[in-house]
Specification:
CATH superfamily: Winged helix-like DNA-binding domain superfamily/Winged helix DNA-binding domain
Largest sheet: 3 strands, antiparallel
CATH class: Mainly Alpha
Helix content: 55-70%
Number of helices: 4
Radius of gyration: 16 Å
Length: about 110
């Protein structure tokens, strides 16, 4: 995929993508979270660790994810993140807001034609 086709992460959507990934797949380390988001977006979204890890830290500080040390498939020590009950509630709130905003945008786009 060319650089022109790669999507940037819209402001405010990183938390939603991280929470949805963890809610769907369960505990993952940061690299696996980034890889999953890249996979689901067919490579359109490629998160660098300088974007992903501050997002994970922010979610952890807000109590939406918790982290604990574990071992990767290659026996490397890594922090594994999992969504908390508060994180699941936040995910539902954010999904509702996302659906509302996309409906507004769709109505605006249809009105422009």
């Amino acid at each position: 995929m060319s650089n022109e086709q790669k999507a940037g992460v819209l402001q405010g959507t990183l938390d939603l993508m991280i929470l949805q990934t963890l809610a769907t797949l369960g505990p993952l380390h940061g690299y696996a979270i980034g890889a999953r988001i890249e996979q689901v977006s067919s490579g359109a979204i490629q998160l660098n660790m300088g974007t992903l890890y501050p997002g994970l830290l922010r979610l952890e500080q807000r109590g939406f994810v918790r982290a604990q040390w574990g071992r990767t498939e290659t026996n490397r020590r890594a922090r594994y993140y999992s969504v908390t009950a508060a994180g699941r509630r936040q995910l539902e709130t954010e999904k509702t807001e996302w659906a509302r905003m996309t409906a507004i945008m769709q109505a605006m786009l249809e009105g422009a034609e």
